[in-house]
Amino acid sequence: MANQLPSRRRFLGGLGAAGTAALLSGCVTSTSTGKSSSKGAVTLQSNLSAPQAKAAMEDLVAAFGKEGSGRASLNTVAAETFRTQLPTYLTSANPPDVYTWYPGSVADAYAKKNLLLDLDEAWTSSPDLKRYSKALDSLCTSTSGKKVFVPSTYYWWGMFYRKSNFAKWGVSEPKSWDDFLDVCDKLKSKGVAPIGLGAGGNTPWVASAWFDYLDIRINGAQYHRELLAGKHRFDDPEVRKVFDRWQEVLPFFDPDGTAVPFQDATTTLLNGRSGMMLIGTFFADAAPKNALDDIDFFRFPIIDEKIPLAEEAPTDGYFASARTGRHDQVLDLMKYLATAEAQEIYIKGSSGTVLPCNPDAKDAGTALVKKGRKHIEEAAEITQYFNRDSSDALQPTADNALTKFLAKPKSIGSILTDWQRDAEKIWNA
After folding, report:
1. Domains along the chain?
2. What is the pTM of this model?
3. Per-residue confidence at 8, pLDDT binned at 50, 70, 90?
4. Torsion angle of alpha carbons 215, 220, 224, 225, nearest 10°?
5. pLDDT at 69
6. CA-to-CA distance for 64 and 126, rounded, in angstroms?
7. Over 70: is that where the pLDDT of 298 sits?
8. With helix as H, strand as E and coil as C, how does the chain read?
9. 361 has a pLDDT exceeding 50
10. Which segment of 13-27, 160-174, 215-229 scores lowest on mean pLDDT?
11. Percent of the chain with pLDDT over 70
12. What is the per-residue pLDDT across 39-74, written as a single tens digit (0 to 9) for each?
């Protein structure tokens, strides 16, 4: 069906290359010594802290309570705090039951440590989950063969801009890398910072989008996934090409790119002080509702026509602690989160810029969402994101290397040598 992610594509290439270092084997059990209490509501730990996303999660939890199958208690944590604290949550003596997070190799890394609940029962007993695409089924299966994740929505990354600003500046969406550089030139001549970044503060990971996209455009998605799995080296000549190309566009980046977090960079974009920004649709959850109709995006420019078209389209959803004492209640919540009703509640309450995983769920139907769906469907391959295609543990090595490159691009040789050394420590751990 149209709403299903295309199963003919390798939705996560790591899963198409099972057995690589990034795909960590792991049998998930619920036999860990520490467990959460079996009494009370299921605790749902959420990183969806942007105003609209948080409100949508509150609506979702309220609706679950009305279903009569159980109650859930929502605890929303600032996104970057959640990111750094997640391993602590999962290993604590009395962990939260359910978490918002990501499937694929990032979930598999936690499954390897026996931290995630086996969700096979939810997948086999839910009429909704039985109908999810094969791509999603694979994405939510650990390399031990267990289901460890329930997907709810997916979204896309692109070069976002305000239509009214592009019209005012007399520029249009570029189709090629050279067109892109021309647009940057024009914006800079008008006193506008052409490209916003937002890799400062506690969001240095945003810079990984530039690394991901340049790598999949220059070397292809297959190479990119193999690189993140440790099959290639970060100091290989192919990776150096990524940074050679990045240096061409560095003069067009906002000078504050590594000084402010992406939320502030989003404000700069919306206010017209920067022209465009490579970001995921989640940024819209913090944007004023009246700005949404003015937001548009274009595909990250093609660099080599011979490379199969790939796009970043991450999936979001939920996994559960292996230490939960509320096994049955957790499964009830997971099955509810997989329904079309639940996903439509979330889409309605948030900015509506995500696509539902349930094949029967309706998206927001806006022009932006229709364009986003087409954007994903036209891709020959789909990647997730740097940490999602590798592990949360590898992400800090990228943050460190990329922020150093942005500060001292001429030192790229030593930066890549150091990155490889740091990555090897993670891969060999």
Report:
1. 13-155+314-383 (3.40.190.10), 157-312+393-427 (3.40.190.10)
2. 0.87
3. very low
4. 150
5. 67
6. 16
7. yes
8. CCCCCCCCCCCCHHHHCCCCCCCCCCCCCCCCCCCCCCCCCEEEEECCCCHHHHHHHHHHHHHHHHHCCCCEEEEECCHHHHHHHHHHHHHCCCCCCEEEECCCHHHHHHHHCCCECCCHHHHHHCCCHHHCCHHHHHHCECCCCCECCEEEEECCEEEEEEHHHHHHHCCCCCCEHHHHHHHHHHHHHCCCEEEECCECCCCHHHHHHHHHHHHHHHCCHHHHHHHHCCCCCCCCHHHHHHHHHHHHHHHHECCCCCCCEHHHHHHHHHCCCEEEEEEEHHHHHHCCHHHHHHEEEECCCECCCCCCCEEECCEEEEEEECCCCCHHHHHHHHHHHCCHHHHHHHHHHCCCCCEECCCCCCCCCCHHHHHHHHHHHCCCEEECCCCCCCCCCCHHHHHHHHHHHHHCHHHHHHHHHHHHHHHHHHHCC
9. yes
10. 13-27
11. 91
12. 789 999 999 999 999 999 999 999 999 977 679 999
Q: How many CA atoms lie within 13 A of 269 on its CB side?
A: 33
Of 135, 297, 311, 305, nearest in space to 216 by CA: 311
- Please state, in angstroms and rounded to a whole number, the distance separating the CA atoms of residues 164 and 296: 10
Q: What's the Cα-to-Cα distance from 124 to each of 270, 315, 370, 423, rounded to whole Å?
A: 45, 21, 31, 37
- Residue-wise pLDDT tens digits, 187-202: 999 999 999 999 999 9
Q: What is the spatial distance between Cα 253 and Cα 1, in angstroms, rounded to a whole number?
A: 40
Measured CA to CA in angstroms, residue 420 lies from 81, 227, 234 at distances of: 27, 10, 5
Other CB atoms within 10 A of residue 214 CB: 22
Q: What is the pLDDT of residue 35?
A: 60
- The separation between CA 193 and the C-alpha centre of its own chain, rounded to angstroms, equals 26
- Express as a percent the part of the chain with pLDDT over 90: 87
52: amino acid identity, one letter: Q
pLDDT tier at 242, thresholds 50, 70, 90: very high
